[in-house]
Amino acid sequence: xxxxxxxxxxxxxxxxxxxxxxxxxxxxxxxxxxxxxxxxxxxxxxxxxxxxxxxxxxxxxxxxxxxxxxxxxxxxxxxxxxxxxxxxxxxxxxxxxxxxxxxxxxxxxxxxxxxxxxxxxxxxxxxxxxxxxxxxxxxxxxxxxxxxxxxxxxxxxxxxxxxxxxxxxxxxxxxxxxxxxxxxxxxxxxxxxxxxxxxxxxxxxxxxxxxxxxxxxxxxxxxxxxxxxxxxxxxxxxxxxxxxxxx
Length: 247
What we know:
The chain is mostly helical. It has three domains: 14-65, no CATH class; 74-166, formyl-coa transferase, domain 3 (2-Layer Sandwich), CATH 3.30.1540; 217-247, no CATH class. The protein contains ten helices and five strands. Strands 1-2-3 form a three-stranded antiparallel sheet, covered by helices on one side. Strand 1 (84-86) and strand 2 (92-95) form a beta hairpin. Helix 1 (14-37) packs across helix 2. The longest helix is centred in the N-terminal third of the chain and has 24 residues, at 14-37. The chain is elongated, with a radius of gyration of 26 Å. The two termini are 47 Å apart.
């Protein structure tokens, strides 16, 4: 968020997911170590450790330079080509050009303001940082003149080789062509609900690709199989536990 905003809540159990991902990563490391060195070992991870690692860039800046990565106003971005802008249809585009001088003249031409490329206020990264509010305001005005689809086409057709993307909402993702082409959202036949869209597998394997094959099990659906396969219990013992409502 911006400096004058309260902390923003992030939904979706990010720490839960990152903790699980890091644990899986640790398990893979342990399996490789077992194959190479013939040793087994305990693997552990935590929400705290996972989220700390996820913020490694900001934390490293703090550790090495003793400064916190500051929150900033969008209207005061030190690099106006690393910022997001609202288009005429209220959709947003994010620019991500970390070497702005390389792109500046071409970008000014693409947004219909070629004179800005040589304007003394904006001619290089240093003076753009000084005049950041004015620069961001001019780019804001430019993007507000066309809908996002037109800007995407215009930036794509230009020879400037710009780095940019759309700002998606969750509602946009099921329609995103790259999401669909990569099977990041797939459809499966759910036993209760019929054809159902689900989040797919984010990692691709050339020979043994993952897939969504079944729905999540019902509560207790696999209890008998687990007790039989892992503990070696027979049906009589399992039936006895069911009659006692222990399982």
